[in-house]
């Protein structure tokens, strides 16, 4: 069966789950697919191009369904939660997406939806990206750290080196909390600030 572009991306994501981002190479991918590396390069001129296609596949679920009718801030929260879940669905998913600037169908569709949420709330289109990029960076940064914690499992060991004082207890409480709760708390802080700014006037 002839190898197509979608097959390469699917194989790359499977290899990503098995090897992690650092273990993903074009040569390994070719071996995984049962072809020479040149067959992979036929579809993707370099690894960066492959990563961009992988990133677009990872975020496919973010915008594949319309957002239900709701206030703009609830829809924006829903989008951020969808993005986090999509990133967590793949090993090192957040690192893959963070290292790309993608102009592919799934990414563009999600961007258009996010833009409509904000412009529908009265935020000017030329100002909306100033909101969306910090939000996107928060989701990426939190999820990168979350996946690193899962991979290494050493936060507790590092925390043990802190003096047995207030900082130690505070860090222990934070580390032991559900990552989803930590994420939602930070997301609400972001949205609280945005609501306040939006109520005062143009963002």
TrEMBL record:
Protein's UniProt keywords contain ATP-binding: no
One Gene Ontology MF term: DNA-binding transcription factor activity
The entry's keywords: DNA-binding, Repressor, Transcription, Transcription regulation
Claim: Repressor is one of the keywords in the record: yes
Biological process terms in GO annotation: negative regulation of DNA-templated transcription; response to antibiotic
DNA-binding region positions on the chain: 25-44
HTH tetR-type domain: residues covered: 2-62
Pfam families: TetR_C_1, TetR_N
Listed name of the protein: TetR family transcriptional regulator
């Amino acid at each position: 069966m002839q190898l197509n572009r979608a097959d390469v991306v699917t194989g790359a994501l499977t290899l990503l789950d098995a090897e992690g981002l650092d273990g993903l190479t074009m040569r390994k991918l070719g071996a995984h697919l049962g072809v020479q590396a040149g067959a992979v390069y036929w579809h993707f001129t370099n690894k960066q191009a492959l990563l961009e296609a992988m990133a677009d596949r990872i975020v496919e679920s973010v915008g594949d369904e319309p957002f239900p009718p709701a206030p703009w801030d609830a829809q924006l929260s829903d989008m951020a939660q969808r993005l986090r879940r999509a990133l967590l669905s793949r090993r090192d998913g957040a690192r893959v997406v963070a290292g790309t600037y993608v102009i592919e169908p799934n990414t563009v569709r999600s961007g258009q939806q996010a833009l409509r949420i904000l412009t529908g709330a009265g935020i000017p289109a030329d100002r909306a990206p100033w909101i969306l990029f910090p939000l996107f960076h928060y989701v990426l940064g939190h999820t990168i750290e979350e996946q690193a914690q899962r991979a290494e499992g050493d936060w507790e060991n590092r925390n043990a080196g802190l003096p047995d004082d207030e900082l130690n207890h505070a860090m222990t409480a934070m580390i032991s909390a559900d990552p989803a709760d930590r994420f939602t708390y930070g997301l609400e802080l972001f949205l609280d600030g945005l609501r306040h700014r939006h109520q005062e006037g143009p963002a």
